[in-house]
Specification:
With 290 residues, the chain is of the alpha/beta class. The protein contains ten helices and nine strands. Helices cover 39% and strands 15% of the residues. Strand 8 (235-238) and strand 9 form a beta hairpin. It binds guanine.
Length: 290
């Protein structure tokens, strides 16, 4: 078993960005700026947004947090997004998901200026991604691509099985890995809740990407010996430790790592790479590269 060390790779990326931001500030120019909108008290969302702010600070990227009560109206949210869209001092904007039921997430995402959409969720950026045109790529699949690239994991001609078809992870990573490129040129099977013979398909995977949202879902009996395992899950599991919980992924790491090839740990795998990718996108937005 070999660990795919997301933490070290993410630190390297953050170091590269930090040097770039320092050079910008040395020229007396404005630092890149990321705005985040957080609605409600969802603990996971709060943790993610805090981690994103902390990562910004560690590189010199400045950030602002627009926090709203669960009861905020869609109209109010859209008017704040309109303000940020037109604010010349803000380069990137993320609206943390999930949003409350009474808010139409699709409408909110579509209202973000595509040039500031560092989550890459806007239909224009999603469409460009599918066509292989330059665009902001969603941070989690982009982080996985960067992880594969920097870990020198070959994807060409490989059978990649993706578990989960979300707009944020499963669908975009399936597209990215099936396109021409390196990483890329893979044959991809996208599995979901209605897939028949899930176990048999998983057993065929050279690379298995678990983004199914269920702790410990992938067992050793579902994994071909030597397969590469990318675990996207982040679950807080209560236990009797001092902290009262530990973080687990979608993969039963203990048993799967005994037979797999390179595998991402949780934490320290995909999660930290997601944040590194968001910072990369913020730099792209700042430089108006897209
Ligand atoms: N919720 C879960 N993942 C993400 C993400 O990458 N961006 C946003 N905005 N919300 C999320």
């Amino acid at each position: 078993m070999k660990l795919i060390d997301g933490k070290t790779i993410a630190e390297k990326i953050k170091g590269e960005i930090k040097a770039e931001v320092a050079a910008i500030i040395d020229r007396d120019e404005r630092a890149p700026h990321l705005a985040a909108i957080l609605v409600g008290e969802d603990p996971a969302s709060q943790t993610y947004v805090t981690s994103k702010e902390k990562a910004c600070r560690s590189t010199g990227i400045t950030s602002s947090l627009y926090k709203f009560e669960e009861t905020v109206s869609e109209k109010e949210l859209l008017s704040v997004i309109d303000f940020i869209n037109n604010d010349p001092d803000t380069d990137g904007l993320i609206v943390q998901q999930p949003l409350p039921e009474h808010i139409n997430t699709d409408r909110v995402v579509a209202s973000i200026n595509p040039a500031k959409d560092v989550d890459g969720f806007h239909p224009i950026n999603m469409g460009k991604m599918i066509l292989g045109l330059p665009s902001f790529l969603p941070a989690t699949p982009m982080g996985i691509m960067e992880l594969l690239r920097r870990s020198k994991i070959e994807t060409e001609g490989k059978h990649v099985v993706v578990l989960g078809r979300s707009n944020i992870v499963g669908t975009p990573i399936a597209i990215m890995l099936s396109r021409k490129g390196n990483p890329g040129n893979a044959t991809v099977t996208l599995c979901h809740s209605k897939t028949a013979n899930l176990k048999e398909l998983c057993l065929q995977a050279d690379i298995l990407i678990a983004a199914i949202g269920q702790p410990g879902f992938v067992k050793a009996t579902m994994v071909k010996p030597g397969a590469v395992i990318i675990d996207v899950g982040i679950h807080r599991i209560e236990d009797k430790s001092e902290k009262g919980y530990h973080i687990a992924g979608d993969v039963d790491f203990k048993e799967v790592s005994k037979i797999s090839g390179p595998i991402t740990p949780v934490p320290g795998g995909v999660g930290v790479m997601t944040i590194a990718a968001l910072l990369m996108n913020t730099m792209k937005a700042y430089k108006k590269e897209l």
